[in-house]
Amino acid sequence: MVKQLKINIMLERAKRSLAELLEKQADYESRKAGIEERLNAAETLTDAEIDAIDADLTALEGESEGLAEQIRAAEAEVERLETELGEIGKQPAPKEEKREEKGEIVMEKKFFVRSQLRTALEPYAEREEVKTWLGQVRTVGKVETRGVPGGEYTVPVILVEPLRELVAKYSKLLKYVNLKPVKGKARQPIVGTVPEAVWTEMVGTLNELDMGLNVVEVDGYKVGGYIPVPNSLLEDSDIDLLIEVMDMLAKSIAYGLDKAIMYGGGIKQPLGIVTRLASATAPRDYGAGAPTYTDLSATHIGYLSSASLTPAELFAELAAGLGKAQSRYAVSGKFWAMSETTFSTLQTKLISLNAAGAIATGAEMVMPIVGGDIVLLDFMPANVIAGGYGNLYLLSEREGVAISQSEHAQFIQDNTVFKGIARYDGLPVIGEGFAMFTLATSSGATSMDFAEDKANAADAWLTALSVKNGSTTVEISPTFDKETLSYTASVAAAVSSVTVSGTARSGGKVGAIKKDGTAAAGGVCSLSAGANTVTVEAVYGTSKRTYTIVITKASS
């Protein structure tokens, strides 16, 4: 009993010490942001004012030196004391929950994970600005109407860093890419091909090396989602509510980030690795100072030559395909993303090879022969393996994480719905550092559907819409306008089919063309007597908008 009390006292002191350090960190971030704001107006400042900014920045750097290490040490001390309390019975033993998955029993130590999160967030729950924010969250949950007035509550600055850490914890790819915090639209310098140093005499003149400095421009796009929180939880303690909201927001944002890093379309979201490899031409916002854009679709995307390859032959082709990711462009390790199904296929082939003594692998999550970490992502298509040198993928992160209530609460379910957003942009700066290979005799999917941005459907539009009977144009009514979505047209009884086509806005594309709900290949629509409904889909990033033409064919 005495030992427990003593540890409790030590733990309280450790928590207070950690809270003071975190407060210093928050003050540092706030002051740094102030200096950055002053720098944004650098063009209008005098030399003396710029010198003053430089002096303030130097002083700030001195104050922050060693702060991160102190915080880590304090967190480790709190965790050690929490663990010691648990060992002597102050805290209940971690409970394991069993669930069946694919015929196996998988153990989930949820209590352990939550206890770690509690330890990390407890110091923040005592902050006045966090309590105020949680009070706002609770206020939203008590509005017992189905339509909840919109209102956004920005996450307190002090919580931004913990939320980032949680996103980094749940994201499987964030640790591999080149993450750079920036403000607003930014131009990022990136070194391209590594130059070869020149040998010369000891007293000779040094040669200038062509560093191949490139500049890419990144903008800002939001990623987010909503979370339903049981109203009963809103009545719980501050720390319980904080854990629930922060945990769910981080998981949602992390999943969206991983998917965009691999398959992002580059419009209203980052450009993904696979999307870059499959794109023959540069995206619309590819900067003039960026590396020369090359078509990699024929060189860096591969698949098996035959369906009857032996395991050894399969791995030989896999190694050759993924080996297209050129190490000259990076120094850090590789990663290879795939689904669990694909990973199981690889394991099956390895079993055959190991039995024959051909190949042995000592690390289950390392790509055989090729090397590089294996990352399992559930959204990856079956048989597709993609990745490369992650530090050649630039991911810019912006400030401004926020949480707000949605327009409609889940009143019947006794839930309150919140949403969270974060701002990112990114692209594979040097595409040659990545590769994709499919364990099949044809290439796997090089594009992927994302959750539709229904709230901003008007971002997608067509600039032209036409109906043709052979080479003859069929007039549509009213005259086409991008904001008009419904049209009519008429054709004679002798017309058996027409070709419908559209032109998308810059950066967008024409999606599905359907006649009476059935896809019309090439826009060719067979007509029946009477009304025929043709739809043309405009796509821009994750936004979609549908134009409809009712074509009436005269009776014989």
Query: Outline, from the CA principal axes?
Result: globular
Gyration radius, rounded: 29 Å
Poorly predicted ranges = 89-112, 141-152, 184-193, 211-220, 356-363, 403-414
Largest sheet: 5 strands, mixed
Say what oligomer this is.
single chain
The count of β-strands is 23
Query: How many helix segments?
Result: 11
Which structural class do you get from the secondary structure elements? alpha+beta
- The averaged pLDDT comes out at 75
> Could you give the distance between the termini?
97 Å
Content of β-strand = 25-35%
Helix coverage percent:
25-40%
What does this structure look like?
It is a single chain. 34% of the residues lie in helices and 27% in strands. Residues 89-112, 141-152, 184-193, 211-220, 356-363 and 403-414 have low confidence and may be disordered. It has helices at 2-40, 47-64, 67-87, 110-125, 128-141, 157-170, 231-234, 238-263, 273-278, 311-322, 340-356, and strands at residues 97-101, 104-108, 152-154, 178-181, 186-191, 213-218, 221-230, 301-303, 334-338, 373-376, 384-389, 393-405, 415-428, 434-438, 462-469, 472-474, 486-491, 497-504, 509-515, 518-519, 524-526, 530-540, 543-553. Helix 1 runs antiparallel to helix 2 (47-64). Strand 1 (97-101) and strand 2 (104-108) form a beta hairpin. Strands 3, 4, 7, 12 and 13 form a five-stranded mixed β-sheet that branches. A five-stranded mixed β-sheet has the order 8-14-11-9-10. The chain has a five-stranded mixed β-sheet with strand order 17-23-22-19-20, with no helix packed on it. The chain starts with a helix and ends with a strand. It contains eleven helices and 23 strands. Among the domains are: 1-93; 273-402 and 425-452, no CATH class; 456-553, Sandwich (Immunoglobulin-like). The longest helix has 39 residues, at 2-40. With 556 residues, it is an alpha+beta fold.
